[in-house]
Structures are given as C-alpha cells and as structure tokens.
Amino acid sequence: MMPDSVLVPYSVSGFRVFAHVKGVTEAESGYTGGDRATAHYDTVSTGSTGHAESVRITYDPTQVTYGQLLQIYFSVVQDPTQLNRQGPDEGTQYRSAIFAQDATQQRVAQSYIAQLTQAAVFPGPIVTSVVPPKAEFFPAEPYHQDFLNSNPSNPYIAANDMPKLDGLKQLFPALYRD
Question: 7 near 57, Cβ under 8 Å?
Fold first, then answer.
C-alpha cells in the first residue's frame, strides 16, 4: 500500500510532534497556500504571501489513520480557537488550517470539526479552516527541517515545543515513538 499524506500548518513543535508519531514515515516543513516565488521564510514571515507555514506528513494508513492525525493536531499541536496564531507566533502564516489532499480528507476534517464544535470541546469557536485539495506544498529551507534537534537549547524550543512533545507522549502513548 502506498503511503498517504496530509498537510497541516505548523510551528516548529508541530513538525517535531508528527515526526514522533508511529506510522509517520516523513514530516517535512514547508509552505502552503501561496506561489512558488514567495515560498521562502524571509518572505513568508511577512504574512503577505498567502502561505501558511505547514508540514507535509507522509504516513502509513495501516499504522496511523488520518483521523488519529487530526486528533493529534487538535489536541496537541494547535489550539484551533486561535485565529492567525500558534502560541507566541502571530500572523496569517500561522493560521489554523487543514490542507486537504483529496475530497475524502476534506470531508473527514470538516466532519471532525463539526463533532468537536457540537461537543463544545473547546472554550471558544473553532476557527480552523479546511482548504479544498488544490494548495501546493513547497519544502522549506534545510535549516527549518529539524530545528528542534538542531537547536535543543533554544528558549523557544523549551517553552513551546517540548510541552507539545510531552503532550503527545501523555495523550497518545500507543502512537508515540522515540
């Protein structure tokens, strides 16, 4: 069976969390939603390109499901009530979105958000958008690919990323891998 993929916005922590999920064969940071010409960190960070910083997650659906990846995204990686923000990072490049890779992913993500909304799981409204399957992914620069492991003593990593990795271990121990 061929691996599937999904695109979600990320902060450094989102990238690292998904890299520790059993069944994820690759987590690649990049940019989604804008043009190839503006898919560079210095340009994307201005918030004017239409891009969201994102992670392309390639996974084996016999080991981890798309639904489980959504659960991890909504419970560990992203606060879906924050518009244009991920933790301390602000701007449209940090918007909460799921970039569906096909109509099935789009439908599943929309249904999951509706279930979370109906159950009032979060204290505020969910602002995560589900983008139809059309957005192209552009890989980020090499220094973004594994920022956490390359910069373990960075204060941003300690404050924002390690708690999310701990959250994965606690909430999804059967899906966690070192």
Answer: yes
Count CA atoms closer than 13 A to 45's CA, side-chain side. Answer: 7
Distance CA(2)–CA(47), nearest Å, equals 35
Q: 121: which residues sit within 8 A by CB, 6+ positions away?
A: none
CB 103 within 8 A of CB 133: yes
The closest of 135, 130, 124, 123 to 104, measured between CA atoms, is: 130
- pLDDT tens for the chain, 178 residues long, are 445 666 555 444 466 788 899 999 988 888 999 999 999 999 999 999 999 988 888 899 999 999 999 999 999 988 899 989 887 889 999 898 898 888 999 999 999 999 999 999 999 999 999 988 888 889 988 877 766 666 667 777 667 777 888 899 999 999 999 8
For residue 176, which phi and psi values (nearest 5 degrees)?
Answer: -80, 140
Residues 78-90 pLDDT 10s:
889 998 988 788 9
Domains and CATH numbers, the chain: 4-171 (3.30.1060.10)
- The structure tokens listed for 107 are 């439908």
Residues 77/160, Cβ–Cβ less than 8 Å: no
Rounded CA-CA distance 115/106 in Å is 14
